[in-house]
Amino acid sequence: MRARVRVRGRRARGRRAGSVDAGDVRTVRGVHEEVAKTVGRVDMSDDANGADDVEVEVRHGGKTRVKTRMAMDALTMEGVTRVTREACEDATRSLPASALTFLGPGGIKFKGDDVGRIDAAKNKKGSLRLMLLVSASSDAVCATKRTTMTGGGSSRGVEALRAARLAKEAKRSEALTASASASASSAKQRRIESWKATGIVGARNEGLDAVPSVLFEDSADFRPRIRVLDCAFNVIERLPAKQIATLSGLTRLVMRDNALRDVDAVPWAALASLKSLSRVDLSGNALTGLPTTTDTLCVVINESIQTLTLARNAIEVIPEGFFSWMKGLRHLSLANNRLSALPRDLRRNSELELLDASGNKTIRAIPESFSELKMLQVLNLSDNAIDATGVPSIVLREATSLCELGLRGNPARIEALRGLDGWSTFDERRKKRADKALASRVMLGDNIFDEGAATERFERY
User: Fold this and answer.
1) Dihedral angle computed from the Cα positions of residues 16, 17, 22 and 26, in that order, rounded to the nearest 10 degrees
2) How far apart are CA 81 and CA 97, in angstroms?
3) Among candidates 233, 272, 281, 228, which has minimal Cα distance to 250?
4) Do residues 100 and 107 touch, judged by C-beta distance below 8 A?
5) What is the tens place of the pLDDT at every residue in 348-372?
6) 453 Cβ contact partners less than 8 Å away, ≥ 6 residues apart
7) In a 3-state reduction of DSSP, which class is residue 263?
8) How far is C-alpha 76 from the geometric centre of its chain's CA atoms?
């Protein structure tokens, strides 16, 4: 907003021209954010004709808004502000005089609410020119700007500007939404292409509540080429049996740390039908039990599954014969469940090399049938309730590959175990294994030289 105030006058008889008393002034405030915008200019000059009034002309927007005559006594800051306000219409009526600054020659500044005279600002020709500055930081200007921008105005121009602005924002929002959608679609397509190229479906920690449905669409011609399905760290509650059974090339299934809970949440029959599947990781779920062999309908023996991890669940009982259909099982983890006994029929899994049932707390004995596990090398039963009477001598003697027995955190103490019949046979295998590791300079772990149980002296403290 720009306004120009031009005051022309003649010297009054018996007094000096240009003498103006400052008063309470209210003036226009612009809606621009610039701190100093030129709003008006006041020109005062003497004339020898001796008239006691002056002509005041206010121009705004290139047009004359006010043209009147004022007496010299009335030519004060208040008078100048009044004609300026009339020239600038409604925009100045709510502005306080303190919001104005008049800049004179030599950098002299006058506030709109000053009360002193402004004679010092006259130049040698007897005229007075003042530049009116408006601060854009005052509350009234900001209020005026907010009213104009947010709907306080009622003119057709303001409404048109507002409508154009809203339309522009809506268009921009639509463009951003379309761009995000296109980007997401493009990323999804690239991901599917990666799955096709590598045969590895990686969908870890994505908040999924189901296996990606794109794998089971009719157009998913790459299903037979999927080798790995990794959906760990999600919230999946159930695996779809029919769909899983179509992944004929699957070798590894990782569903750890999900929300599998019910007995039928895992389609064991479908897993049994996958002849390439070798590793299944279901640890860190909430499984409370396993189905019976009849329920799983495992009529076909699976010899491909070698590693099964059921650690960190809530399994209390292993149904009789559940593992019998996994003829090729070598590594089995039942750690950190709620088992009170180990399944005796594990003797049927003749290829079993490692069994980890640590952390179940309430297992009290090793089944004697484990003596038939001729391939069993590692039996970890730490943190349970087994004492020396729960370790059968026949297992120590006839499980001919057993060379690592973990019984720490149990009532059994090494002094009692050393007195068992068959312990010396087991201990000889353990030492032979340690010697072989030393000779080959290969360390097999911290337990290689450990007898597997705590000593009496540690129990005392």
Assistant:
1) 170
2) 8
3) 228
4) no
5) 999 999 999 999 999 999 999 999 9
6) 407, 408, 410, 412, 413, 414, 417
7) helix
8) 64
Compute the average pLDDT of residues 172-190.
72
DSSP SS3 for 129: strand
pLDDT, one tens digit per residue, over 212-251 is 988 888 776 888 899 999 999 999 999 999 999 999 999 9
Per-residue tokens: 164 = 């154009």
Query: What pLDDT band is residue 283 in, cutting at 50, 70 and 90?
Result: very high
Instruction: Tell me 89's DSSP state.
Output: G
In this predicted structure, the answer to whether residue 182 has a pLDDT above a threshold of 80 is no
Task: Say which range, 3-7, 136-140, 199-203, 404-408, has the weakest mean pLDDT.
Answer: 136-140
Give the other-Cβ count within 10 Å of 252's Cβ. 16
Single-letter residue type at 261: R
**Of 43, 38, 32, 146, nearest in space to 100 by CA:** 38
Neighbouring-strand partners of residue 252: 228, 279
Question: CA 25, 27, 33, 37 torsion: positive or negative?
Answer: negative
- CB neighbourhood size of 190 (10 A): 10
Q: Which residue has the higher pLDDT, 383 or 26?
A: 383
User: Which among 298, 255, 252 has a CA at the least distance from the CA of 277?
Assistant: 252
Higher pLDDT, 336 or 154: 336
How far is it, in rounded angstroms, from Cα 332 to Cα 311?
Answer: 9
CA atoms within 13 A on the CB side of 333: 17
Choose among 282, 273, 320, 318: nearest CA to 300: 273
Helix (H, G, I), strand (E, B) or coil at 381: coil
Q: How many CB atoms lie within 10 A of CB 303?
A: 13
Rounded Cα gap, residues 426 and 421, in angstroms: 10
pLDDT on residue 256: 97
Instruction: Supply the DSSP symbol for 454.
Output: B
Helix (H, G, I), strand (E, B) or coil at 441: coil
Cβ-based neighbours of 27, under 8 Å, separated by 6 or more: 39, 40, 81, 84, 85, 88, 92, 95, 97, 99, 100, 112, 132, 134
Q: Tell me the pLDDT tens digit for each residue of 241-250.
A: 999 999 999 9
Q: What is the pTM (predicted TM-score) of this model?
A: 0.61
